[in-house]
């Protein structure tokens, strides 16, 4: 049976030591945020996720969601756990107090969401998607719609979903066929079939609020003809009472590789009553509010599964004995050494840990910039924050989920054959992590978004500002002897990134196939450099902390890990540069039907 302990100390390190969320300069943005309050919230989340939600992960995976007589049920124990989650007020943590939320920063909510996803990713999605739907309604809907629907979504009495995908269209949403026709009273009738809808139906909430992308009459073809609609499973009167069923039905639930704890549904809308959110024809733009939230959330899933897989692999490696260490026996008196003494196993664990801690810091940084972009009064600060979030969202979604999946496999490998059988739960982490690379826009689409939209944004100024920050860090720390190898390796990796970027700028338009073929590698190259920068910053913070507390193992290990990342991972940047700048001739030379 796998175990999970929320990484509370590291979360607090990111929030207070690295991001300095309680710094005076953020005073008007992060109001009432002090270490004591945040520690209490983080500790309670750790208890709920570790003691209540994580134990349901493996049992729920085996049982799965069931579909019978048109109704979906979640695995045993989910209803109780969801009630405990709601009773603790966790659902509204970062929501607007006007609608019953607690108004705490997104930064805090996002960091805690890692715990829920590590504990039980499928369970976390029932309220994770609700939060995304809340964000789209909160930002785009009329006051009337907000007042009517948001309070019950904030409390999670009603949960939310996101309905884009149809049988013939996933990535290319311009092909959507679901129709919306306007009624005399201003509502719409929605007709069509959506597939793969996460949390599409279940028994955890009394109503489900579907956000549906559909085409209205007399609108252009393609994405410009799409509008966003709020379509409840059960209609609600003006006093907030549930009334009649709304012709929304479940066709089936999918049999999947993993994610058995979440119901993935075919949803049929048969003239269901729906309400327009925002302006007609701006559906995709409005849905993107939900999708951008969701992309950060999916990135967190990659980190979360990497973390829980790491914890279990480390525990196993500290216990399992096989062979003796190549450099001499370590566990005297035992027939064999614990496998953590073998340098390959130790390096595997350190690689996963290096990813987890940098990814956690990146998630915190992006969430904090999101808060700044919403709440700061300083226009320049808002603009810079938005630019950085936009630039790095494909990295968060694409790199964190690609590497997160890889790490679950590496952690599984540490168990040998015991990782392949069900008992230890490692194969479930692998199966669950896989979907995060696919939904919310596949990782190839994230990579294409990065090179085709994010890099050219504002004539390249956004990416230049990012590179400039890294350059300034290198310059400021080049004489810092304690982390010299980190700064030197980051410098070389940043040069590789710059070289690859120049290649794309020079050749991208002339040879679009070369750019498309290089996109995935470029995303990972930028991920490596971003992580290197974060490790550099974390090492500097740890170094400062060690001045007053020289024997603190937490900070000492941060410096060890930064050096490890610099030696073993930043060097990959050069290889990516070589691959990217090799162009696409070898790909183009091969006729497509010979592949
Ligand atoms: C478990 C699960 C849960 C899901 N939850 C939801 C949900 O809640 N709501 C929802 O609406 N959808 C959901 N989805 C759908 C998911 O978002 C889509 O499967 C995904 O976006 C990809 O679409 P597709 O499967 O149609 O693949 P396709 O779009 O057919 O893509 C096939 C392949 O082609 C590549 N490709 C496509 N277009 C291009 C291009 N222009 N250039 C280069 N490569 C390209 C893709 O990267 C992919 O590798 C879910 C799916 C699953 C399996």
Could you explain how this protein is built, in words?
It is a single chain. The chain is α+β, with helices and mostly antiparallel strands and about 600 residues long. It has helices at about 10-20, 35-55, 55-65, 80-85, 105-140, 145-155, 285-315, 345-375, 380-415, 425-435, 445-455, 460-475, 485-505, 510-550, 555-570, 570-580, 585-590; strands at about 65-70, 70-75, 160-165, 180, 190-200, 205-215, 225-230, 235, 240-245, 250-255, 265-275. The strands form three sheets. The protein has a five-stranded mixed β-barrel with strand order 4-5-11-7-6. A two-stranded antiparallel ribbon has the order 1-2. Strand 4 and strand 5 (about 190-200) form a beta hairpin. Helix 5 (about 105-140) packs antiparallel against helix 6. The longest helix has about 35 residues, at about 510-550. The protein is globular and about 80 Å long. The mean pLDDT is about 95. The chain binds flavin-adenine dinucleotide. Flavin-adenine dinucleotide binds next to strand 3, strand 5 and helix 11.
Topology:
Elements: H1 8-18, H2 35-53, H3 55-63, E1 66-68, E2 71-73, H4 78-87, H5 106-140, H6 143-154, E3 158-163, E4 179-182, E5 188-198, E6 207-216, E7 226-232, E8 234-236, E9 242-245, E10 248-253, E11 264-277, H7 283-317, H8 343-375, H9 379-414, H10 426-434, H11 443-454, H12 461-477, H13 484-507, H14 512-548, H15 553-568, H16 572-581, H17 585-588
Parallel strand pairs: 3-6, 4-6
Antiparallel strand pairs: 1-2, 4-5, 5-11, 6-7, 7-11, 8-9, 10-11
Helix pairs in contact: 1-2, 1-8, 2-5, 5-6, 5-7, 5-8, 7-8, 7-9, 7-10, 8-9, 8-14, 8-15, 9-10, 9-11, 9-14, 11-14, 12-13, 13-14, 13-15, 13-16, 14-15, 14-16
The site of flavin-adenine dinucleotide (FAD) has 20 residues, from strand 3, strand 5 and helix 11.
